[in-house]
């Protein structure tokens, strides 16, 4: 299940408190240089997964410095559900890069758990343009998940009830802003996107659909994509 609605829910809470290659074929999308940034809310660019998996990983690179006029921009891999937790509650786990106005991008992970609710953790030093990190979200045992960065644990093991055998991972960039006149822009590359389909076996990810909201351009790579947008 897509995390797009889950991400919207997370923003409301916050307001209250694929082997990289040269073969390319651009998905249909508007030229990201032309939009007038006259919309607000969420906008997305990336891949929605095609099957249930126990993990997702990608090497994420910020090709150019992310420009955030208002709100936030996140490039992440993750899995979850807006209504699949106990009692029909949302739960998810995601990790990647995040940028805010006037700040360089930074590593982060985000967890929504039934009961405790939503929590985001930023860590590490500010990232330089062109810096790459291998980000993975993995089910390490039944219903227990962990974030890995460059093959090292970056989060504690987290219990997410009802997650086993239930989630379809995504790999996306999202922008959120409440001011229609503000413009957020980014240029990210996702390479070597993989799903953990069983045990410790990783397979190349296959998207069920490509997200490219107005203002975004997606260029497919052999095992990933480039996402350029101005929202």
For the termini, the CA-CA separation is 24 Å
Supply the CATH class.
Mainly Beta
Helix content: under 10%
Radius of gyration, whole Å: 16 Å
Strand content: over 45%
Mean of residue pLDDT? 84
The helix-strand sequence is: HEEEEEEEEEEEEEEEEEE
Query: What would you call the shape?
Result: globular
The total count of helices amounts to 1
What brief labels describe this structure?
231 residues; mainly beta; Jelly Rolls; 7-stranded antiparallel beta sheet; 1 helix
Describe the structure concisely.
The protein contains one helix and 18 strands.
What is the element layout, followed by pairings?
Layout: H1 4-16, E1 25-26, E2 41-49, E3 55-62, E4 67-68, E5 72-81, E6 91-99, E7 106-113, E8 117-123, E9 132-141, E10 144-149, E11 152-153, E12 158-159, E13 170-177, E14 184-198, E15 201-204, E16 207-212, E17 216-221, E18 224-230
Antiparallel strand pairs: 1-17, 2-13, 2-16, 3-9, 3-14, 4-14, 5-6, 5-13, 6-7, 7-8, 9-10, 10-11, 10-12, 14-15, 14-18, 17-18
């Amino acid at each position: 299940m897509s995390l797009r609605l889950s991400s919207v829910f997370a923003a409301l809470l916050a307001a209250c408190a694929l082997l990289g290659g040269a073969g390319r074929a651009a998905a249909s999308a508007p030229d990201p240089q032309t939009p007038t940034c006259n919309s607000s809310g969420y906008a997305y660019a990336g891949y929605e997964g095609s099957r249930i998996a126990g993990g997702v990983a990608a090497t994420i690179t910020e090709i150019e410095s992310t420009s955030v006029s208002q709100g936030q921009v996140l490039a992440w891999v993750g899995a979850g559900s807006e209504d699949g937790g106990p009692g029909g509650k949302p739960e998810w786990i995601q990790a990647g890069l995040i940028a805010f106005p006037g700040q360089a991008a930074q590593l982060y992970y985000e967890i929504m758990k039934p009961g405790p609710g939503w929590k985001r953790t930023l860590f590490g030093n500010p990232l330089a343009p062109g810096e790459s990190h291998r980000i993975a979200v993995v089910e390490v045992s039944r219903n227990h998940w962990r974030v890995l960065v460059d093959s090292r644990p970056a989060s504690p093991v987290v219990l997410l009830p009802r997650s086993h055998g239930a989630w379809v991972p995504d790999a996306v960039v999202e922008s959120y802003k409440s001011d229609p006149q503000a413009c957020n822009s980014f240029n990210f590359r996702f390479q070597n996107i993989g799903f953990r389909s069983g045990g410790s076996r990783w397979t190349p990810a296959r998207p069920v659909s490509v997200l490219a909201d107005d203002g975004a351009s997606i260029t497919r790579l052999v095992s990933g994509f480039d996402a350029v947008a101005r929202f």
